[in-house]
Amino acid sequence: MRDLLRRARTILVLGAHRDPSRPAHYVPAYLHEAGYRILPVNPLFAGEVLFGERVRAELGEVREGVDILDVFRRGEAVLAELEKIRALAPGLVWLQPGAEHPELERALKEAGIPVVAGRCLMVEHRRLLGDRGRA
Questions:
Q1: Which of 13, 93, 96, 134 is the most buried (most CB within 10 A)?
Q2: What is the set of domains in the chain, with CATH numbers?
Q3: Mean pLDDT for the stretch of residues 101-112
Q4: Separation of alpha carbons 44 and 64, rounded Å
Q5: Are 40 and 14 in contact (CB under 8 A)?
Q6: At a CB cut-off of 8 Å and minimum separation 6, what does 64 contact?
């Protein structure tokens, strides 16, 4: 996982939020400060700018390559996005605590997409790389 975090450049955040007190804001803010490009997706804030990028309304609007898909939505809701996730072909899907869903995890793994579930990306980044960004 350490190597993956070092190699990653772009993190798509599904469910990104503009409220700094919410994990869906302060986790991607931390990752942005660590040097990652953050692509926020949330229909509630579509067109606004978060982390230096325009917020997209849905996954289908993302055309860039994605190294990590960081999910801050309930797993049941994300299961409906499975085909769009497959089309994005991220290097890793990270299901934050509360986003776990066994059927979704199984379907992603069957599609050859690695999954981390029930752990916080910010906490794991700090544990593995400290606050040194991707270095």
A1: 13
A2: 2-129 (3.40.50.720)
A3: 94
A4: 21
A5: no
A6: 10, 39
